Each structure stands twice: as C-alpha cells, then as structure tokens.
Amino acid sequence: MDHRSRALLLPSACPLLAAVVLASVSLAASAQQSWPSKPVRVIVPYPPGDTADTIVRLISQKITERLGQPLLVDNRAGASGQLGLELAARAIPDGYTVAVGQAGNVAVAPHTYRKLGYDPQRDFTPVALVAMNYLALVVQPSAPYRTVAEMVAWAKANPGKLSFGSNGEGGFPHLSFELLRVQAGFSYLHVPYKGAAQIVNDLLGGQVDAAMASYTSMLPFARAGKLRMLAITNPVRMASAPDVATVADALPGYASQGWFGFLAPSGTPRAVVLRLNEEINRAVRQPDVAERMTVAGLEIIAEPPEAFASLIRRELDKYAKLTRAIGFKPM
Fold first, then answer.
1. What is the domain range of residue 288?
2. Does residue 3 or residue 177 have the better pLDDT?
3. Residue 326 CA to chain centroid, in angstroms?
4. Environment class of 10 (CB within 10 Å of its CB; exposed 0-12, middle 13-18, buried 19+)
5. Within 90-213, where are the H helices?
6. Who is most buried in 115, 194, 252, 297, counting CB within 10 A?
7. pLDDT in the model for residue 167
C-alpha cells in the first residue's frame, strides 16, 4: 500500500480519535474563555502587612474590579517563604491558584536547603514579574570608610575584623554580601541574627560594623545620621537618588536585586497565564499602585511571562555558582 492509499484511509479509520481531539480542544477553549468563573486564590508566603503582601493586595483589588471575580489573598507565611510555594505546587493547575514567588524562595532556596518541597522550574509557570528591589549597605557613622572601595581596602588590611550582620546563613542579605566578598576578595566576620530589628539595634549600638537591608527601611536612619549608607545593590543609580552610590561603582558587574512576581502551578492553561499577565501589568501601571510601589522603594516591572522565566533561570544559575564558590553547605 502506498502513502496515498494510507492517507485516504486516515479520515475514515480514525473518526473517533478526531472527534475526541476536537472535543478536547473545544472544551479547553471554552474553559479558558469562561475564566474566571469563581474566585482565584493568591497564595502569599509572607505575613499580612509585609511590603509584598501590601502590593499584591492592591494588585488583586485592581484585577478583581476588571474580572468580576475576587482574587483572594491567602497568607501562608513560614519556612522562609517556602510553605506557600509548596501549597501552590500541589494545587490543581486550572487557573484558580497562583502564588507569589521571590528571589529567596525561588532562586536562593534550591541551593541552600537540602530538601525543598518544590522545584521552581518544574512545578511552576512564571506569570508576571511585578517588581525589583534592592538592599542598602550601611555601616556605623564612625566607621573609618566612607565608600565601598574604602571598606574593601580596610577589610583587606584587617582580615576578619569587619563584622557583618544578616538575618541568617544563606539568607538574601548574607548571600548579597558574600557576592561582594567573592568579587572583591576580602574576609569578614559573619554575625547571623533572627530578625532585622536586632541587626539595626546592634548597628546603632556599635556591636556590629555593617549590614545589608532594605533601602527604604535604612533611609530614615541614614538621613538622621545614625547610620552611613555606602551604596545600594542595584546595578545602576536610582533616578530618585542619583547621589547614592552603587556597589557596582566600586565593583563593576556587581548586582544583587530582590524581586517578586506571580507564579502558577505548572500546566496552567497558557491563555489564563497570558490573561493574568496582561491584568497584572495593567494593575501595576495604575497611578495609585505605581505610587505606592515607588514609595516602598520598588522598581515596577511589566513584561511578558517569558521575561520572568528568563530571570528565574539566570538567578538560579547565579546562586548555584555563588554557593559553590563559597562552599555553602545546604541546611
């Protein structure tokens, strides 16, 4: 039998298969067109009142107004933001569950924890990156260095004497400073704390020399002269504060930014992902949301899902290399 004969037999030989395929496509299209037909759960792995939580609630409100179905925020704080992502990874990928992922629980945790209840790339579909933020490197006002270059020179001349406070081994501030150390080539004393408040207290009291923390949270102390802000970890200077140096001014190529965005369980319909991306991007551009984000020290991002997926891949690779370079032992 030649190929023409086989081709002639296909339509009559597989009517049931053709019908099933057409029905499946029709049902999928219908489901996506009717989305959302019920509330959408937004899992936020932080406590109420957290900056990301506040912004996500604003975004969810804007989207609710357009979709006619509520986006319900479900705070599931715990395990350094991992608990919420574990729940989302096990959710049905029907477009009615999304979660908020950030640099720590998406890009850093896979390299700092032995057991993780999810795989960032296998278990999730990136929906939309919402914002980038950055840390500020602050030191005591009496410190004998006024720039990053001077701090590095002092640390090299006094091996192990520069004390740095962070919120724990393997946390984002700790790895941001490790990135600086590896690139600059000096040693220091790491002092882990349980929370940012303790770090600030010890910085103000002179018990620790330096720390990295949210730019907006450190700004009041810098303005009051209680702490000296050496630089921010953003790769370029801020338009709103061009006089604030970046670490990259002293160490070209350095960048350590935080970020957060929406993720959906892997397998979520593409049409739903694109619709969510469109609505999230529209929401962050609204004047009241944009103003709130700017005041919080966030850089607004409104890009397609592929841009978020690309960022996640780059960040996973960056922290894989960094943790190997410093010999970090997963917890």
1. 38-132+257-326
2. 177
3. 22
4. exposed
5. 109-112, 148-157, 172-184, 196-205
6. 297
7. 86
Using a 10 angstrom Cβ sphere, with 0-12 exposed, 13-18 middle and 19 or more buried, the burial of residue 153 is: middle
Would you call the peptide bond into 48 cis, given omega within 30 degrees of 0 as the criterion?
A: no
Using CA atoms, how far apart are residues 275 and 143, in angstroms rounded to an integer?
51
Pair (183, 126) in one structural domain: no
- Domain assignment of residue 118, yes or no: yes
- In this predicted structure, the answer to whether residue 278 has a pLDDT above a threshold of 70 is yes
* Number of domains forming the structure of the chain: 2
Do residues 211 and 318 share a domain? Answer: no
CA distance 50 to 108: 20
The CATH number that applies at residue 209 is 3.40.190.10
Ramachandran class of 158: left when φ > 0, alpha when ψ lies in -120 to 50, beta otherwise: beta
One-letter amino acid for residue 11 of the chain = P
User: Is residue 17 domain-resident?
Assistant: no
Look at residues 169, 135, 52 and name the one whose alpha carbon lies nearest to residue 101.
Answer: 52
As a dihedral over the C-alpha atoms of residue 268, residue 52, residue 198, residue 205, rounded to 10 degrees, the angle is: 140
